Amino acid sequence: MVHTKRKKGSVVMVLGKTMNIKRRYNLAKYFNELGFKVGAEIGVADGRFSKDLCKAIPGLKLFCVDPWDISKGNSRGGSKERHSGNYELAKERLASYKVTFIKKVSMDAVLGFEDEALDFVYIDANHDFDFVMQDIIEWSKKVKKGGIVSGHDYYNFRNSGVIEAVDIYVKVHGLKLNLTDKAVDHGEVSWWFVK
């Protein structure tokens, strides 16, 4: 297994200013500083981070991809009612933003996007190795050159394959992996790289 040495928050230079990306909300602000206007979140659940993205990036056109159902491609578990409830919460939470809901598993949804159509993608779907690797490979094609491929939950838990898939992908492609600090409020470390 490949592991990247972990650093505290990524410090980047944007338009002559230094930004410290310690939390995933800072990542959303970074996308705004870069002028990103079209993105996708893969694995939306109740839409909390989708709303953070929309708040941080005025005028963002966001594609929210999630099956919101118990399916082979959904590792979040829970009942049909829970997924249905999350979908309703997401719709309510995001009602005032320019979002398009796509109720499909990731590999079905990705087929509906042209290559290099997105400024960024944020992957937080099925955390099993094969699914994470497929998501990175296929959704990376949909991000323009100079855009950002990113995701959530870069830590070891319940046989998650996130760390292994991300580390292998960036190593094979010679990319620089950036990590946020562990979030205090929600979730874990986010990861990202420039395509």
Provide keyphrases for this structure.
single chain, 195 residues, alpha/beta, Rossmann fold, seven-stranded mixed β-sheet, disordered N terminus
Structure characterization notes:
- With 195 residues, this protein is α/β, with parallel strands linked by helices.
- The protein has a single domain (10-194), classed as Rossmann fold, CATH 3.40.50.
- Helices cover 32% and strands 24% of the residues.
- It is built from six helices and nine strands, in the order E-E-H-E-H-E-H-E-H-E-H-E-H-E-E.
- The chain has a seven-stranded mixed sheet, sandwiched between helices. A two-stranded antiparallel ribbon has the order 1-2.
- Helix 1 packs parallel to helix 2 (48-56) and helix 5 crosses helix 6 (162-173).
- It starts with 9 loop residues before the first strand and ends with a strand.
Produce a short descriptive summary.
The chain is of the alpha/beta class. The protein contains 6 helices and 9 strands, in the order ββαβαβαβαβαβαββ.
How are the SSEs ordered, and which strands pair?
Blueprint: E1 10-14, E2 17-21, H1 24-33, E3 38-42, H2 48-56, E4 61-65, H3 80-93, E5 98-102, H4 106-109, E6 118-123, H5 129-141, E7 143-151, H6 162-173, E8 178-179, E9 191-194
Parallel strand pairs: 3-4, 3-6, 4-5, 6-7
Antiparallel strand pairs: 1-2, 7-9, 8-9
